[in-house]
Amino acid sequence: MAQSFSPNIPRSKSPFYTFSLIIIIFCIILFYTLHYRNNSLISNKTSQNANLFRNTFISSADNSTISDYLRTLTLHPHLAGTPPADKTIAYVLNHFRNSGFETHVKEYNVLLSYPIHTSLSLHFSNGAVKEIPITEIGIDQDSIVTPYHAYSPSGSAYGRAVFVNHGEENDYAVLESQGMKLAGCVALVRRGGLSRNAVVEKAAEKGLAAVLMYTETEGFNNGVERGTVLKGLGDPLTPGWAGIDGGEKLKLDDEEVVKRFPTIPSIPISADAAGTILRSLEGARLPYHWKETLKSKVGRVGPGPIMINFTYQGEKKMSTISNVFAVIRGYEEPDRFVLLGNHRDAWTYGAVDPNSGTAALLDIARRYSLLVRKGWSPRRTIVLCSWDAEEFGMVGSTEWVEDNLINLGSKAVAYINVDCAVQGPGFIASATPQLDDLLIEVTKKVKDPDSSDMTLYEKWVANNKGIKIQRLTGADSDFAPFLQHAGIPSIDMYYGEDFPVYHTAFDSYAWITKYADPYFQRHVAVTGVWGLLGLHFADELILPFNYLSYAAQLQEYVKVLGTALDNIASISLHPLVTSIEELVEAAKKAEDEKKELSSEKAGDYHFALKRRILNDRLMFAERGFLDPQGLKGKEWFKHLIYGPPSCDYGCKEAVFPGISEAASRMTRTKETETVQHEIWRVARAIQRAVYVLRGDLT
């Protein structure tokens, strides 16, 4: 028989023990009551002063401060993985630390690519030889990386020159229809809609020996546009997982790695060099519809008679890259993360791309630090992210997303990206549709930099005859891994459509001050919108997501899709229509809940819990659009609404990328079945988002 157990306390001391226990319990209750009450008071104070803090953020703008940041960032080139880049890493890290924030650096060991030797010469039929300069003329070559295509294979070619326009399938079809033999030729390509990788892959498919690529510009024809020809995103040796030091890495000859690289060599050249080649071509006449957009005076496309002698030697090597972070912990929901990101690395000086955005990020840190000193604490945690090796294929951000995929999937509220903050005039924004309302509201609070009597919103409307928010259908900046792999609601924004010194040695502080933003007013405007968005996501009681906007956008997409597939009786859009109707109903109920829970009720645990549950549903609904199988042929991309379309990475014109890809190949009955399957996949993804938004199990 087991013996009973009682505390070994003298009976005479039992009343004292009982009294002591009561006192301890009372103190615990009092502590938690005061703790919750204090948190509620802070919460009330922060909510009541939200507008005050936002106004303080806007009023603390300083053009000259942003200018100083940018000048320092662009004193020297800082290509990822090179010694000069370490100075830029230290500068950003020290700024975050001096702002008083918790900071850290996360390093990854990844495969990058650098040039060793390049030569290019033209051989004419009369025996003359002309050497073509590879680098920009008039630039200090000792500090600038030789223009190259990262991850291009080394190789040599000697063949007839042929102009293939943008290097798209329809361009080759025009040449082939004239009986032109392209095998063994060296292709001259002007940059257009395709990514660099897609251009080179298409040229290899057509039997060409090498590719020379140029960009048509206004006033900077001597510039050479560097870039990557890597297929997909992230470290080639760690596809789908992070490239941590000592972790698993594939070998260079692994099939998974090899397919990421082109099979023929390529280099970028200047528009001036391209003009020399174009003027020397004979052979077939230039197709008329090419001539309409071609800036160079060209009459013939070749092949030949001019011969091109080309050699490129490069190296792929393991390099350490560094992502730098500043963290402002949330007082009430420290496990909910609002992420503001910009990449730091550049091909050369990188004044526009990306350090106009880096300067803005540093100024946000300065202004957030000021708010903290004035008593502000964010409700949710804010993370300022400075990415590395974006230019090689979003490597730094991709490795970090893969490293933190589960935490991000369960805790990330939104990601706000700014890459080239200022390229010129005109505000441009892209977003997932549930963020449209917030983006519009914030632009009403920021002064337009080019019109003293207008807000940014008013000028935006005037320029576009209405609001024009683009969608994140490409994969050309650091938002891609967050949205298209992790399903995190995202925004990307900048000033200016294009700029002629993109990826060239002329992308300097001097160019910014002369052409893009002499008084740094546009920098101030982008910083204002970016920082205010962060404050709204971090501080609002109910997350500012509106899925009615998403549903309306999806309905528009289905109308366009219906028009495109109108004559194909075997394909039905009914699954899409039905799932979107359910999304509308779920979104309406969520909006009603938002109104009910939008006020602060201090001390009401049940009310706070209901608000937390609603916020989680609003935050997680975007994850529903992910499919674990990913896009066919691009399986890393999981998002079925927004992702790289059929024209490959870098394009920005398609939604429903899986459907778009299948439809573009549709010629037989079996392929119509593939289209229908993709329609069902998207319908199921929308249905998953509906279930999340409702919050109930089926």
Helix content: 40-55%
CATH superfamily of the largest domain: Zn peptidases
CATH class of the largest domain: Alpha Beta
Q: Tally the helices.
A: 22
What oligomeric state is this?
Answer: single chain
Number of strands: 16
Largest sheet: 12 strands, mixed
Low-pLDDT runs: 1-13, 28-45
Taken as a percent bin, the fraction of beta residues is 15-25%
CA-atom Rg in angstroms: 28 Å
pLDDT averaged over residues? 91
CATH names the topology of the largest domain as: Aminopeptidase
- Tally of individual domains: 3
Secondary-structure arrangement, i.e. CATH architecture of the largest domain: 3-Layer(aba) Sandwich
Distance between the termini: 51 Å
> What's the overall geometry?
globular
Structural class comes to alpha/beta
Structural description of this entry:
It contains 22 helices and 16 strands. The protein has 3 domains: 50-110 and 318-539, Aminopeptidase; 115-315, Glucose Oxidase, domain 1 (3-Layer(bba) Sandwich); 547-694, Transcription Elongation Factor S-II, Chain A (Up-down Bundle). Strands 1, 2, 4, 5, 6, 8, 11, 12, 13, 14, 15 and 16 form a 12-stranded mixed beta sheet that branches. Strands 3-7 form a two-stranded parallel ribbon. The model is unreliable at 1-13 and 28-45 (pLDDT under 50). With 698 residues, it is an alpha/beta fold.
